[in-house]
Design brief:
286 residues; mainly beta; 10-stranded antiparallel beta barrel; elongated; 13% helix; 44% strand; 3 helices
Protein backbone atom coordinates (compact mmCIF):
# COMPACT_ATOMS: atom_id res chain seq x y z
CA UNK A 1 0.00 0.00 0.00
CA UNK A 2 2.93 2.37 0.43
CA UNK A 3 3.43 3.02 -3.31
CA UNK A 4 -0.31 3.69 -3.67
CA UNK A 5 -0.31 6.17 -0.78
CA UNK A 6 2.63 7.98 -2.29
CA UNK A 7 0.90 8.15 -5.66
CA UNK A 8 -2.27 9.58 -4.14
CA UNK A 9 -0.30 12.21 -2.21
CA UNK A 10 1.53 13.28 -5.36
CA UNK A 11 -1.74 13.39 -7.28
CA UNK A 12 -3.22 15.73 -4.69
CA UNK A 13 -0.09 17.90 -4.76
CA UNK A 14 -0.25 18.31 -8.53
CA UNK A 15 -3.81 19.55 -8.21
CA UNK A 16 -3.20 22.15 -5.50
CA UNK A 17 0.12 23.55 -6.70
CA UNK A 18 -0.10 26.98 -8.32
CA UNK A 19 -0.39 27.09 -12.10
CA UNK A 20 2.80 27.82 -14.04
CA UNK A 21 3.60 31.28 -15.33
CA UNK A 22 1.99 30.57 -18.69
CA UNK A 23 -1.80 30.57 -18.98
CA UNK A 24 -4.82 30.00 -21.15
CA UNK A 25 -6.86 32.80 -22.66
CA UNK A 26 -10.45 33.93 -22.18
CA UNK A 27 -12.07 34.22 -25.62
CA UNK A 28 -14.35 37.24 -26.07
CA UNK A 29 -16.25 37.04 -29.37
CA UNK A 30 -17.65 40.56 -28.95
CA UNK A 31 -14.13 41.93 -29.41
CA UNK A 32 -14.60 41.24 -33.13
CA UNK A 33 -16.82 44.32 -33.32
CA UNK A 34 -13.62 46.37 -33.45
CA UNK A 35 -12.24 44.24 -36.32
CA UNK A 36 -12.93 44.92 -39.99
CA UNK A 37 -16.11 43.04 -40.94
CA UNK A 38 -14.38 41.25 -43.80
CA UNK A 39 -11.83 39.71 -41.41
CA UNK A 40 -14.08 38.69 -38.52
CA UNK A 41 -14.95 35.18 -39.65
CA UNK A 42 -11.37 34.35 -40.63
CA UNK A 43 -10.08 35.45 -37.23
CA UNK A 44 -12.73 33.45 -35.40
CA UNK A 45 -12.01 30.39 -37.56
CA UNK A 46 -8.31 30.55 -36.68
CA UNK A 47 -8.90 30.81 -32.93
CA UNK A 48 -11.52 28.04 -32.88
CA UNK A 49 -9.19 25.71 -34.75
CA UNK A 50 -6.33 26.24 -32.30
CA UNK A 51 -8.68 26.05 -29.34
CA UNK A 52 -9.92 22.65 -30.53
CA UNK A 53 -6.36 21.37 -30.93
CA UNK A 54 -5.56 22.59 -27.41
CA UNK A 55 -8.60 20.95 -25.80
CA UNK A 56 -8.12 17.52 -27.34
CA UNK A 57 -5.40 15.39 -25.75
CA UNK A 58 -4.04 12.22 -27.40
CA UNK A 59 -3.65 9.09 -25.27
CA UNK A 60 -0.34 8.73 -23.43
CA UNK A 61 -1.30 5.57 -21.53
CA UNK A 62 -0.25 2.07 -22.59
CA UNK A 63 -2.20 0.80 -25.59
CA UNK A 64 -3.38 -2.36 -23.83
CA UNK A 65 -6.68 -1.73 -22.02
CA UNK A 66 -7.27 -1.87 -18.28
CA UNK A 67 -8.46 -5.16 -16.83
CA UNK A 68 -12.11 -5.76 -15.99
CA UNK A 69 -11.58 -4.98 -12.29
CA UNK A 70 -9.05 -2.18 -12.75
CA UNK A 71 -9.70 1.53 -12.23
CA UNK A 72 -7.31 4.44 -12.61
CA UNK A 73 -7.23 8.09 -11.58
CA UNK A 74 -4.56 10.46 -12.84
CA UNK A 75 -3.67 14.08 -13.42
CA UNK A 76 -2.81 15.19 -16.94
CA UNK A 77 -0.80 18.33 -17.67
CA UNK A 78 -1.18 19.49 -21.28
CA UNK A 79 1.03 22.26 -22.66
CA UNK A 80 0.06 23.55 -26.12
CA UNK A 81 1.79 26.18 -28.23
CA UNK A 82 -0.61 28.47 -30.07
CA UNK A 83 0.30 31.08 -32.69
CA UNK A 84 -0.09 34.66 -31.45
CA UNK A 85 2.35 36.44 -33.77
CA UNK A 86 0.89 39.43 -35.65
CA UNK A 87 -0.43 38.45 -39.05
CA UNK A 88 -1.24 41.81 -40.61
CA UNK A 89 0.12 45.31 -41.06
CA UNK A 90 -1.80 46.55 -38.01
CA UNK A 91 0.40 44.38 -35.81
CA UNK A 92 -2.35 42.20 -34.35
CA UNK A 93 -3.25 38.53 -34.60
CA UNK A 94 -6.50 36.60 -34.41
CA UNK A 95 -5.69 35.67 -30.81
CA UNK A 96 -5.01 39.32 -29.94
CA UNK A 97 -8.36 40.37 -31.36
CA UNK A 98 -10.32 37.68 -29.51
CA UNK A 99 -8.57 37.52 -26.14
CA UNK A 100 -10.02 39.36 -23.18
CA UNK A 101 -6.96 41.48 -22.39
CA UNK A 102 -5.58 41.48 -25.97
CA UNK A 103 -2.46 39.81 -24.58
CA UNK A 104 -2.79 36.06 -25.21
CA UNK A 105 -0.15 33.69 -23.92
CA UNK A 106 1.67 31.68 -26.57
CA UNK A 107 1.88 28.71 -24.18
CA UNK A 108 -1.44 27.27 -23.05
CA UNK A 109 -1.56 25.12 -19.90
CA UNK A 110 -4.46 22.74 -19.30
CA UNK A 111 -4.35 20.59 -16.12
CA UNK A 112 -6.97 17.82 -15.95
CA UNK A 113 -8.19 15.00 -13.76
CA UNK A 114 -8.69 11.78 -15.74
CA UNK A 115 -10.69 8.68 -14.79
CA UNK A 116 -10.38 5.31 -16.56
CA UNK A 117 -12.25 2.03 -16.07
CA UNK A 118 -11.73 -1.35 -17.71
CA UNK A 119 -14.64 -3.29 -19.17
CA UNK A 120 -15.09 -6.83 -20.55
CA UNK A 121 -13.59 -7.90 -23.89
CA UNK A 122 -10.77 -5.32 -23.79
CA UNK A 123 -13.10 -2.34 -23.82
CA UNK A 124 -12.44 0.73 -21.71
CA UNK A 125 -14.20 4.00 -20.89
CA UNK A 126 -12.87 7.20 -19.42
CA UNK A 127 -13.65 10.80 -18.65
CA UNK A 128 -11.83 13.98 -17.76
CA UNK A 129 -12.37 17.45 -16.40
CA UNK A 130 -9.78 20.12 -17.16
CA UNK A 131 -9.17 23.80 -16.55
CA UNK A 132 -7.70 26.25 -19.05
CA UNK A 133 -5.35 27.70 -16.48
CA UNK A 134 -5.89 31.25 -15.23
CA UNK A 135 -9.11 31.56 -17.25
CA UNK A 136 -12.81 31.04 -16.52
CA UNK A 137 -13.13 28.18 -19.01
CA UNK A 138 -13.00 24.42 -18.59
CA UNK A 139 -13.04 21.32 -20.72
CA UNK A 140 -15.18 18.26 -20.06
CA UNK A 141 -14.74 15.11 -22.09
CA UNK A 142 -15.06 11.36 -22.33
CA UNK A 143 -14.04 8.46 -24.51
CA UNK A 144 -14.58 4.81 -25.34
CA UNK A 145 -11.73 2.54 -26.40
CA UNK A 146 -11.28 -0.99 -27.69
CA UNK A 147 -7.85 -2.66 -27.59
CA UNK A 148 -8.69 -5.35 -30.14
CA UNK A 149 -5.06 -6.50 -30.10
CA UNK A 150 -3.91 -6.26 -26.51
CA UNK A 151 -2.09 -8.32 -23.92
CA UNK A 152 -0.41 -10.75 -26.32
CA UNK A 153 3.34 -11.07 -25.82
CA UNK A 154 4.06 -11.99 -29.45
CA UNK A 155 2.42 -9.01 -31.18
CA UNK A 156 2.11 -5.26 -30.48
CA UNK A 157 -1.00 -3.85 -28.83
CA UNK A 158 -3.41 -2.02 -31.13
CA UNK A 159 -6.39 0.09 -30.02
CA UNK A 160 -9.00 2.41 -31.48
CA UNK A 161 -10.56 5.23 -29.45
CA UNK A 162 -13.45 7.65 -29.97
CA UNK A 163 -13.65 10.72 -27.73
CA UNK A 164 -15.16 14.16 -27.35
CA UNK A 165 -14.03 17.28 -25.46
CA UNK A 166 -16.34 20.23 -24.90
CA UNK A 167 -15.45 23.86 -24.14
CA UNK A 168 -17.38 24.89 -21.02
CA UNK A 169 -17.85 28.19 -19.20
CA UNK A 170 -17.70 30.72 -22.04
CA UNK A 171 -20.93 32.69 -22.46
CA UNK A 172 -20.03 33.84 -25.96
CA UNK A 173 -18.80 30.63 -27.59
CA UNK A 174 -19.98 27.01 -27.59
CA UNK A 175 -17.32 24.67 -28.98
CA UNK A 176 -16.08 21.11 -28.95
CA UNK A 177 -13.95 18.58 -30.79
CA UNK A 178 -14.47 14.90 -31.63
CA UNK A 179 -11.47 12.61 -31.98
CA UNK A 180 -10.92 9.22 -33.59
CA UNK A 181 -7.46 7.80 -32.99
CA UNK A 182 -5.47 4.63 -33.57
CA UNK A 183 -2.51 3.69 -31.39
CA UNK A 184 0.13 0.96 -31.57
CA UNK A 185 2.39 0.07 -28.68
CA UNK A 186 4.12 -2.66 -26.72
CA UNK A 187 4.87 -3.29 -23.05
CA UNK A 188 8.36 -4.34 -21.99
CA UNK A 189 8.72 -5.84 -18.52
CA UNK A 190 11.99 -5.02 -16.77
CA UNK A 191 11.33 -7.57 -14.03
CA UNK A 192 8.58 -9.87 -12.87
CA UNK A 193 7.74 -11.54 -9.58
CA UNK A 194 4.85 -13.70 -8.54
CA UNK A 195 3.90 -11.37 -5.70
CA UNK A 196 4.47 -8.02 -7.43
CA UNK A 197 4.81 -6.90 -11.02
CA UNK A 198 8.09 -5.27 -11.92
CA UNK A 199 8.64 -1.99 -13.76
CA UNK A 200 6.97 -1.84 -17.14
CA UNK A 201 7.88 0.39 -20.11
CA UNK A 202 5.16 0.96 -22.69
CA UNK A 203 6.09 3.13 -25.71
CA UNK A 204 3.37 4.01 -28.22
CA UNK A 205 2.76 5.91 -31.45
CA UNK A 206 -0.47 6.81 -33.16
CA UNK A 207 -2.58 8.84 -35.55
CA UNK A 208 -5.74 10.82 -34.82
CA UNK A 209 -8.43 12.49 -36.93
CA UNK A 210 -10.15 15.47 -35.29
CA UNK A 211 -13.36 17.32 -36.20
CA UNK A 212 -14.22 20.58 -34.46
CA UNK A 213 -17.36 22.68 -34.22
CA UNK A 214 -18.22 26.03 -32.66
CA UNK A 215 -21.23 28.30 -32.35
CA UNK A 216 -20.76 32.00 -31.52
CA UNK A 217 -23.41 33.14 -29.06
CA UNK A 218 -22.50 36.84 -29.04
CA UNK A 219 -24.39 39.12 -31.43
CA UNK A 220 -21.67 40.14 -33.87
CA UNK A 221 -22.42 40.65 -37.53
CA UNK A 222 -20.40 38.86 -40.17
CA UNK A 223 -19.77 35.62 -38.26
CA UNK A 224 -21.52 32.27 -38.26
CA UNK A 225 -21.18 28.76 -36.84
CA UNK A 226 -18.17 26.62 -37.76
CA UNK A 227 -18.16 22.86 -38.21
CA UNK A 228 -16.19 19.99 -39.66
CA UNK A 229 -19.41 18.21 -40.66
CA UNK A 230 -20.25 18.94 -44.31
CA UNK A 231 -24.01 18.39 -43.93
CA UNK A 232 -24.38 21.12 -41.32
CA UNK A 233 -21.78 23.61 -42.60
CA UNK A 234 -23.37 27.00 -43.47
CA UNK A 235 -22.54 28.92 -46.65
CA UNK A 236 -19.07 30.39 -46.54
CA UNK A 237 -17.67 27.75 -44.17
CA UNK A 238 -15.45 25.01 -45.59
CA UNK A 239 -15.77 22.00 -43.27
CA UNK A 240 -12.31 20.84 -44.29
CA UNK A 241 -10.89 23.79 -42.34
CA UNK A 242 -12.15 22.18 -39.12
CA UNK A 243 -10.74 18.72 -39.72
CA UNK A 244 -7.24 18.03 -38.44
CA UNK A 245 -4.66 15.26 -38.64
CA UNK A 246 -2.56 14.48 -35.60
CA UNK A 247 0.54 12.35 -35.06
CA UNK A 248 1.51 11.48 -31.51
CA UNK A 249 3.85 9.38 -29.46
CA UNK A 250 4.59 8.73 -25.83
CA UNK A 251 5.79 6.45 -23.07
CA UNK A 252 4.19 5.00 -19.96
CA UNK A 253 6.35 3.93 -17.00
CA UNK A 254 4.58 1.77 -14.43
CA UNK A 255 5.87 0.44 -11.15
CA UNK A 256 3.30 -1.40 -9.10
CA UNK A 257 0.29 0.89 -8.81
CA UNK A 258 2.13 4.10 -9.70
CA UNK A 259 2.11 5.29 -13.31
CA UNK A 260 4.03 8.13 -14.98
CA UNK A 261 3.53 9.16 -18.59
CA UNK A 262 4.81 11.69 -21.07
CA UNK A 263 4.11 12.34 -24.72
CA UNK A 264 4.15 14.82 -27.57
CA UNK A 265 1.96 15.50 -30.57
CA UNK A 266 1.87 17.52 -33.78
CA UNK A 267 -1.50 18.53 -35.24
CA UNK A 268 -1.81 19.45 -38.92
CA UNK A 269 -4.70 21.76 -39.90
CA UNK A 270 -5.63 22.53 -43.48
CA UNK A 271 -3.90 25.66 -44.73
CA UNK A 272 -2.60 26.68 -41.32
CA UNK A 273 0.51 26.40 -39.15
CA UNK A 274 1.31 23.14 -37.39
CA UNK A 275 0.54 23.06 -33.69
CA UNK A 276 2.79 21.29 -31.19
CA UNK A 277 1.92 20.14 -27.67
CA UNK A 278 3.27 18.06 -24.78
CA UNK A 279 1.54 15.96 -22.14
CA UNK A 280 2.67 14.75 -18.71
CA UNK A 281 0.63 12.51 -16.46
CA UNK A 282 0.88 10.88 -13.04
CA UNK A 283 -1.63 8.26 -11.96
CA UNK A 284 -2.59 5.59 -9.46
CA UNK A 285 -4.05 2.30 -10.66
CA UNK A 286 -6.47 0.67 -8.22
Amino acid sequence: MLPLRRALLILIATLVLPAPAFAATDIVVENLKSVDAASRQAHLNFVVRELAMTLSSPPTYAVGSLGLYEFEISTDQRIAFIHTDPDDAAGTSAWNDLSEANEPSTVQYVPSVVFRKGLPWSFEVGGQVGWLAMSRQFKVGGYGRWAFLGGWDKVPDVAVRVGYDGYVGNEQLDAGVMTLDFAVGYTFKAASKKEQAGTRFSPLVGYAFLMAHAQPVAEVSGITQMTGWAKTAPDGIDPRDFRFHRFFGGMELRSGQVVFRFGADITVPRGGPLMAAMNFSLGARL
